[in-house]
Amino acid sequence: MRGLRIGTAAALAWATAAGAQTGDGRPGAALAVTGVHVVPMTADTVLRDHTVLVRDGRVTAVGPSAAVRVPAGTRVVDGRGKWLVPGLADMHTHLFSDDATPDSLAADELGVMVANGVTTARLMIGTPEHLALRRDVAAGRVLGPRLRVASPQLTGREAANARVVTTPEQARAAVAEAAAAGFDCVKLTSGLTLPAYEAIVDEAARRRIRVVGHVEDPVPLARALRKGQQLEHLDGYLEAALGRPSLTQGGVFRLDRWPTLDALEDRTLDSLAGATARAGAWIGPTLAVFNSAFGTGQDSAEVRARPDFVLWPAAPRALYLRAEARYWTAANAEVRTEARRRRYVAARNRLVKAIADSGGRILAGSDTPEWFHVYGFGLHRELQALVAAGLTPYQALAAATRAPAEYLGEAAEWGTIAAGRRADLVLLDGDPRADVRNTTRIAGVAVGGRWLPRAELEAMVAKATRRVGGGA
Ligand SMILES: [Zn+2]
Fold it and tell me: Which residues lie below 8 Å from residue 298, measured CB to CB, with a gap of 6+?
């Protein structure tokens, strides 16, 4: 990861730029999707054979096709036999250009997200370059998902794009800098002391900036829940359930931590899930990456056959291939047994299901690029992992549409399909409420009313594969 320069002021007027990307880019261009089954995400329902009208980047009408008149000069997309959902939000993603890939290719990376129906994305270890990218997207200079940008990672020890804080004073200063720079939230990762953690959440509350991220020893889950932190990766839950260090973050790489699972009880997980819901915490479990990389494993032929494998640049690909080989050795398997790996996945899935059943709030995040998953593609896998954990397809979809908008306080702007909403729309060839895998069958995407048919989306992925990826 690149070294970071803190303090660049980047205040950004969000909503006012919403209209920049409209129709085919011309201001006032109008779009209509006709005869389509609308999945508005305002409720678990479908509006069959409806027409959605768009002008100036906003939905202006949603009604039965027989009742909605399409104005002359409107670009018409035939939606018969298709489903229309709100644009998807990936609440936890990164870019290859956070590392060695040139920043000049970041726009191509955002194109891959859009091609997968992602119209809002939260970059989870922020840089000044991300703030500039956020401005460029908002101004319509770059075609991409609207960006939210977390601060550089606040850690207790050196790391890439990190702000190391070891004292409460340093912690407060780092939060102040992140807020002044215009980052949307403060991102926490590893090695924070309790006094530093307390200072971070206190200073963030004073400056009304959200705190998101990891929950790692010595910060207990209960403290993070009480402080209103937005929690990623289900960090801290196994430690809270077992009363000892377990598999959170770096714990998965320590063989001596895996036997801790033998003492894990489901009823303890269920009570933690209830506490999470009662605390009103927002949970981004990033199930797909963690479950596949550390629990179930990934078949290498299947990985290589996935469309996003070729997007991996050569150097990080080699790095993860080596890490994978180190993780999956026969010797390790004697302790990191199949039964314990199954328990790891089952425990994470049970937590997510129990949190949802208790009325808790789930956010979909892919945590890509990681372990051969890439943004865009990875979000669809996260939706599938949420369903595999026991959520309904509708609940999984809500975690990537309505819920992120509510979390960000922007439910009036996006996250559902209704008059007045931003025209971020995804046209699908199958019913995602029947089978969430249908979110991958994309016929077209509207980003702020700008319509991109499948051929254009495929060209965006092909271009990124050529320029970012390491090829087959
Ligand atoms: Zn991450």
Answer: 292, 371, 372
Q: 139 C-alpha vs ligand 1 centroid, how far in Å?
A: 26
Third-level CATH fold of 88-407: TIM Barrel (3.20.20)
**pLDDT value, residue 427:** 98
Positive or negative, the CA dihedral 312, 318, 322, 328 is positive
Distance (angstroms) between ligand 1 centre and the Cα of 213 equals 8
Q: Report pLDDT for 1.
A: 41
Distance 161 CA to ligand 1 centre (A): 12
The Å distance, Cα 133 to ligand 1 centre, comes to 19
- Per the listing, tokens 């998807």 go with 88
Same fold, 8-86+414-452+460-469 and 88-407: no
φ/ψ of residue 430, rounded to 5: -150, 165
What's the gap in Å between 429 CA and the centre of ligand 1?
Answer: 31
- Smallest CA-to-CA distance from 261 within 170, 350, 150 is with 350
Ranges in the chain, pLDDT < 70:
1-28, 471-472
CA-to-CA distance for 290 and 453, rounded, in angstroms? 33
- Closest to 397 measured CA to CA, from 136, 87, 115, 188: 87
Where do the structural domains in the chain lie, given as residue ranges? 8-86+414-452+460-469, 88-407
Give 380 Cα–ligand 1 centroid separation in angstroms.
Answer: 16
Integer Cα distance of 216 and 13 in angstroms: 34
Task: Determine the distance separating the centroid of ligand 1 and the alpha carbon of 278, expressed in angstroms.
Answer: 26
Classify 63 in phi/psi space as left (phi over 0), alpha (psi -120 to 50) or beta. beta
Question: Which helix (H) or strand (E) element contains residue 60?
Answer: strand 58-64
Q: What is the pLDDT of residue 7?
A: 36
Distance in Å, CA 115 to ligand 1 centroid? 21
d(CA 218, CA 368): 26
Cα(351)–Cα(24) distance, integer angstroms = 44
Q: Tokens at residue 426, please?
A: 């995804």
What Å distances lie between residue 297 and 39, 280, 327, 347, CA to CA? 34, 32, 10, 16
Task: Write the burial class of residue 265 (CB in 10 Å: 0-12 exposed, 13-18 middle, 19+ buried).
Answer: exposed
Q: What local confidence, expressed as pLDDT, does residue 26 receive?
A: 54
Distance 46 CA to ligand 1 centre (A): 34
> What pLDDT score does 472 carry?
64
Residue partners of 408: CB distance under 8 A and separation at least 6: 148
* Whole-number Å distance between alpha carbons of 393 and 413: 23
| Helices then strands, each counted (H, E), the chain | 16, 17
pTM of the predicted structure, to 2 decimals? 0.94
8-86+414-452+460-469 CATH fold: Urease, subunit C; domain 1 (2.30.40)
